[in-house]
Design a protein that fits this description.
A hairpin with a 2-residue loop joins strand 4 and strand 5. The chain has 11 helices and 14 strands. The protein has helices at residues 40-47, 69-75, 91-101, 107-119, 135-147, 165-177, 191-197, 215-223, 237-244, 271-280, 295-304; strands spanning 2-11, 14-24, 29-33, 55-60, 63-64, 76-79, 153-157, 183-187, 200-205, 208-213, 225-232, 249-255, 258-264, 285-291. The strands form 3 sheets. A 6-stranded mixed sheet has the order 6-7-8-3-9-10, sandwiched between helices. A 4-stranded antiparallel sheet has the order 2-1-4-5, covered by helices on one side. Strands 12-13-11-14 form a 4-stranded antiparallel sheet. It has 313 residues and is of the alpha/beta class.
């Protein structure tokens, strides 16, 4: 649905983005992460045909962004970081205006406007002036204008900025509900939001892609191996020693009843052998599972360690 090949944008001698290559499948929700100034908004502006690239190619829904920008805009719903709303218009009038701009007319116009207002929770304020709304509600109006023409692709830059916790949960659920019917690229600095919403993550740093994969796969690659945690009733020296002797176990750390087992990268699945060994030594296994590094840890490693190799899917 989205194909980006060697995309570069230069501002004089400085590259805002450089040689970006990635693809997003139909119906997929992808998180676009990076520190301020990394090139996220520049990429989104190019993909939505609001800004030309210096070189490279981008295709959305089969149309080249540079050769067919109007066709691309017809198929894309775009919410920039600052919602493009008119404060002197009423909410419903503005959403209808946005629908007409996208070519929605006739018998489907009313239905499209009603659906967008309902999905974004604007029913109670639909007759109010946008300028009199809170920042959170103005953000919802911006999201409604991106949704109103039922686009194939949605590109959302910080969609939950200014929303309260309840509104954030509602918008997250709305975005998740778009999967399958819509292809979504979501930019956010709120890392838990990406974890809760997106199926895949693209991390951009200094204008280049630092990583592209699911969070689980990135965690494994950055850990360079697995770490299992095990809670037992009867921790014993004999049991810990037996666990350490399992081929592939790099080390075992015991802190009371909790054991941490570090596994060498590339080792076969040892879960059955680990649990069986603990049971044979009468340790009484209460809990067992893999430890995962957080998205925050992934993000920091990829954007602060310049020696970190690129992780691709």
């Amino acid at each position: 649905m989205i194909e980006v090949s060697h995309l570069t944008k230069m501002y004089g001698p400085r590259a805002a983005i450089e040689d970006l290559c990635f693809a997003v499948k139909k119906g997929e929700i992808v998180g676009f992460l990076g520190p301020n100034g990394a090139g996220k908004s520049t990429t989104m502006r190019i993909l939505t045909a609001f800004m030309p690239a210096s070189s490279g190619k981008a295709t959305l829904a089969g149309f080249d962004v540079f050769e067919n920008p109007i066709e691309v805009k017809r198929r894309v719903g775009y919410l920039p970081e600052n919602p493009p709303v008119y404060p002197d218009m009423k909410v419903r009038d503005y959403v209808e205006y946005a629908a007409r701009l996208h070519g929605v007319s006739g018998g489907t116009l009313n239905q499209s406007v009603n659906t967008a207002i309902e999905k974004t929770g604007l029913g109670d304020v639909s007759k109010r002036l946008i300028g009199n709304l809170s920042k959170g509600y103005r953000q919802r109006v911006g999201l409604a204008q991106a949704l109103v023409h039922n686009p194939e692709i949605m590109i959302l830059d910080e969609p939950t900025v200014g929303l309260d916790p309840k509104q954030i949960i509602e918008i997250r659920e709305l975005i998740k509900s778009l999967a399958g019917d819509h292809t979504v690229i979501l930019s956010s600095h709120i890392l838990p939001e990406v974890t809760a919403t997106c199926q895949r993550i693209i991390v951009i740093n200094k204008g280049k892609i630092a990583a592209e994969d699911s969070l689980d796969h990135l965690s494994l690659r950055l850990n360079k191996g697995l770490v299992y945690s095990m809670l037992v009733k009867n921790p014993s020296k004999e049991g810990v020693t037996a666990l350490q002797r399992i081929t592939g176990v790099k080390g075992v750390t015991a802190a009371g009843p909790k054991l941490m087992l570090e596994i060498n990268s590339g080792t076969k699945d040892l879960r059955d052998e680990i649990v069986e060994t603990a049971v044979n030594h009468k340790m009484g296994v209460l809990e067992f599972g893999a430890e995962k590094i957080s998205l925050e840890d992934v993000f920091l490693q990829l954007t602060t360690d310049e020696t970190q190799p690129v992780a691709t899917q």
